[in-house]
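Rotation project, supervised by the postdoc (A.L.). Task for the rotation student: set up a whole-complex structure prediction and record inputs and outputs verbatim in this book. Inputs entered:
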Amino acid sequence: MTNKFNIAVIAGDGVGQEVIPLGKRVLDAVGSFEYRDYDWGSEHYFRTGSMAPEGFLELLRPADAIFLGAVGHPEIPDHVTLNGLLLPIRRKFDQYANVRPAVLYDGVRSPLALRKGEKIDMVVVRENTEGEYAQVGGFVYHEQPDEVAIQTAVFTRRGIERIIRYAFELARKRNKKKRVASITKSNAQGFGMVLWDRTFQIVASEYPDISTESLLVDAAAMNFIRRPESFDVVVASNLFGDILSDISAILVGSMGLAPSANLDPTRRFPSMFEPVHGSAPDIAGKGIVNPLATFFSAAQMLEHLGLPEAAEKVNVAIAKVLAEGKALTPDLGGKSTTTDVAEAVLNHIR
Ligand code: NAD
Ligand code: IPM
Ligand code: MN
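Outputs recorded:
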């Protein structure tokens, strides 16, 4: 391989520090990468009063991709840590498509009692730059007894249309069930979500080969449990996509298996790859965090960088480790350590 990709790495907090170094070893086993490691996160906050130095986004801009672990610390309010590091990256680099696949692998048990032969293979496509996460609003009478907080969701036709179009294109590219489900709450939220539903109808008409359904989010949550096998591509707003992708993660066995790609499909800016899970303070430092979500995210990164064969190698190695069932962390019912699992994956790659 001639081309060395330049990867910006933010291991971040908690279990992020455990999974990212192993993720780099997996990447190194299938390709050639130059890493820039940034020590940003909660320790940086304790040291300096901010999660990352001023101008940190400009440091990330030249990277071919960003590889991130997790952000969040029990002793710092979450809105401070997340708005100080993770969320600005998604917004600044217009990573509007947050792609979160959920596949039930052989050897992994779903908490649901599935009918024999039933498979779960879906992907939640989450709008990642606006909607309920727009951070528009404020406090009035701050910390007074009559305090008022306003948090406005922002839906733009452009923002809705591009994420829905991304979902349809993905359904075509996957070439599986060729189905897109759109999730809103337009029975209660009569503006933004209505614009979403209308836009979904318009874009859908351009894809006659893809079947569609529109679900309200409460019914969608229920149907994820009732008929998970029926979903292919699911497209949702920022908040609904966040919630639904935790459900889809556990449907296929564990948060420790759920990857995500934060994509700028126009490639104007670097995209970011990170596990769906957080810093998991309840298990951090114990050496038992499941690193596979991070490895799957690394495979998404390889795919994005135009290295589909390398991505395939990683995905196949993970699938083998799961099917064998010998090296599994406790979240999957095993007794192995994080490092054991990583070694098992690396052995299959070699
Ligand atoms: P979490 O995802 O960190 O953990 C939820 C549960 O899943 C915990 O019981 C944890 O032990 C388990 N879990 C998660 N990942 C696992 C893995 N790889 N292997 C085994 N078990 C795993 O969510 P939380 O507890 O709600 O949040 C903890 C902190 O992380 C908070 O500060 C939160 O804001 C932050 N957070 C950050 C991100 C991110 O950086 N992308 C995502 C979610 C939460
Ligand atoms: C995720 C996380 C983040 C989100 C939090 C930590 C802000 O839950 O990536 O799913 O809601 O986007
Ligand atoms: Mn989440």
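Student's summary: The chain has two domains: 1-98+259-350, 110-252.
Supervisor addendum: The first strand starts at residue 5 and ends at 12.
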